[in-house]
Amino acid sequence: MSAQNIFDFEYIKTNNKISLFFIYFNGDIMKIIAHRANNNHKYKENTIEGIIDSLNKDYIDGVEFDIRLTKDKYFVLYHNATYKDNLIKNKYLKDLKLDELNNVLKNIKSNKIILIDIKCEEGNYKEMSDYLIKVLKKYKKLNIYLCSFNYEMCLYLKEKTKYKVGLLISNLINKNKNIKPFDFISINYKIYKDINKDTFVWTINKKELFKKFLNKKVYIITDKAYLILEK
Questions:
Q1: pLDDT single digits (tens) 17-54
Q2: For the whole model, what pTM was predicted?
Q3: Which of 50, 72, 166, 216 is the most buried (most CB within 10 A)?
Q4: What is the C-alpha to C-alpha distance for residues 64 and 37, in angstroms, rounded to an integer?
Q5: How crowded is the C-beta side of 44, counted as CA atoms within 13 Å?
Q6: 3-state DSSP: the chain helix, strand, coil percent, rounded to 5?
Q7: Residue-by-residue DSSP string for 68-99
Q8: Is 14 part of a structural domain of the chain?
């Protein structure tokens, strides 16, 4: 049976065929990572509810979410630098209706991938990294991966921790940087190239793109993991 046949959406209609599909997907080829823990659930992105729901899905191999540091040195789950027109770095945790990292991690009971995208566009990356390392010490049993667009932060985390650390790469950021120090990269699908390193590819939200990466040993970051089950 070919990979193409396994990926045929007609083929996975019965429970038996879906099970075969799961066996294939949880092998050494493509893995599915829920982007900001999004999927076809009712929860908002970057929330504990979405994370738990996505991790409970058999066809999802892990979740990705973003963190930012507040003024009082708490990590909150959020992508953008501003929340309701205020910079998160200038706000206290109590003033933000956002999930806090420590509370999220203590509720995860899965050994699936937890990919944390650290947002650090400016400021003291060493201080921020040290705060994060302190939080993560309590969760050594979790399968945590760390990544950032901040090149110096990634180097620092690689030196100071035993977690897998990767560099985020886009067409404009880090495209020509040395990736040898890192365990993996996380790259925009438009500039993806086969390399001898674990690779996360973002953001894959169309069936046609899923098929493109089917036979590649990559981690697909997607808002629509459920598409692999659709006809």
A1: 443 344 344 445 789 999 999 999 999 999 999 999 99
A2: 0.89
A3: 166
A4: 6
A5: 8
A6: 30, 25, 45
A7: EE-TTS-EEE-SSSEETTEEGGGS-GGG--S-
A8: no
